[in-house]
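Limitations

Structures in this collection are predictions, not experimental determinations, and the ligand pose is part of the prediction. Treat each record accordingly. The example that follows, with zinc ion as the small molecule, is included so readers can see exactly what is and is not provided: the inputs are given verbatim, and the output is the predicted complex.
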Amino acid sequence: MEIIAKVYSGYKETYRKIYKDVVERAYKNNGININPEKIIYQIEELDGETIQSQRSKKNSSRTITIIEDGIIKYIVGLSNTGYDDDKLLENPNFDYGHTGYHANTYFVQGCNKIFDYYLTEKEINKNIKLYFYMLDLNKSHPHDKFNLMIYRKLATIGFDVLNIDQIKFDEYVEMGFSLDEIKSGIKYISFNKFSNDLSFISNKNKGNVPSYIKCIDYSYDINKETDDETEEKFVDLTNQEYIYTFKTLSAEGYDSFLTMWTLSVLAEKENKKLKFMFAPEKYNFRLGQEVPKFTDGFTGPLIELMEKIGLDQEYETTDEVRQQIRREINQYEISKANGTIRNQELFKNNLRKKGIQTKCYLCGCEIENILEAAHLWGVSEIKKCNAHDINDILSNPCMSDLISSESDHSSELFYKKYMLANSGDNGVWLCSNHHGLFDSNFYCFESETGKVIIKLNANEIDKTFFELCTNNKELPREILTDKSKLFLSRREENFNNMNKFNKFK
Ligand SMILES: [Zn+2]
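Predicted complex:
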């Protein structure tokens, strides 16, 4: 058996160091052991005076093609590298390899070319497999959360990273993911989990207007909303549509493409309706930019690739953007006319934007039909407050961004209550059981620690049931933002007035 590792001249020195490992791992992934010393390293020379011009000659330059007895067997796409031996040979004085180089475009920049090469070859031979191999793994940026998420996206859409064992997922623990606990690899197993991570990552980068996912419930009628918490209504999942508003500004385009592919794979699995929307005036600029640079959408090669994969994207017109803004304004006007501060659609989308996991924090239930967005500080309690109370809580420094001074309503008491009631920081996801028990004040959370406290006069049978169905005795740390602690402290005050309490053991 003759095995050739074919590379292009622009990367011949960089890939010379790793090709044996790449090929060995590709075969091993298929249960085959080979002798790496027998692999033939074949370089296809490309024209071009500089390394960069050689690389741009071929779409597939960032790959190693593994050919067995004359037939392509595997294609391996590589990440960019900040420690580039070919460019260093060309220009020994250039400062390559400082930490953080390529940080944002480490994998995504140009990844479409790798997919394109693979899909084209696959038309000729459907048995070809595509893998990825990441470089510079002894440096920090390949291990940052943005890149860890990319490896998970690749796994979800069906492509393995051959040297995944060299990648440390330690940074993911705070997002509720640990390699020790999982059985199914690093794949995302649910749409919600992935969207949660998306918002978590976007929220990290404050300079960017985050692309985010929202859910429109077409059967939601704000006119039927009440501020009575016990009237939680069954949500008809069939009328829900998820909308991902994507960005395409420079390298974000490549990332959006991978994100959309991943979302569509997960949505299809869960029968979720999903739509991709783009509006240049909405998200595709950076905050604080003096002359905002707008983009018109994806570039030609990405659009072609998405067509091949079957990803449809829709473009919002300025009119549609206005319509959406109108929908939000209309909802507010209706709420105000009805005197109802609760807007469950807005509240849930705000909770989604917070980037926390969509599951009951006490029992881990993820069944969407019985997952409810629970208010920490109850809507009816907020409603009862007078102007002094409301202004008092809003005067806390952590609340300073809740009421936008640009809003026409910023001085209205109703508006302030509406914003407090529907703030994502005023919410947690709970299953129907835990929500019901929470709202009936069977238990509460300590505002400082998030620890569960149950009422003292609870009877033994109820307590036993509660203990049986409650796996976690405190809220995860990422939920307890300063705002959330403040909201919770108002609820805790009421709870303590009603009950003496003891700690849940
Ligand atoms: Zn629960």
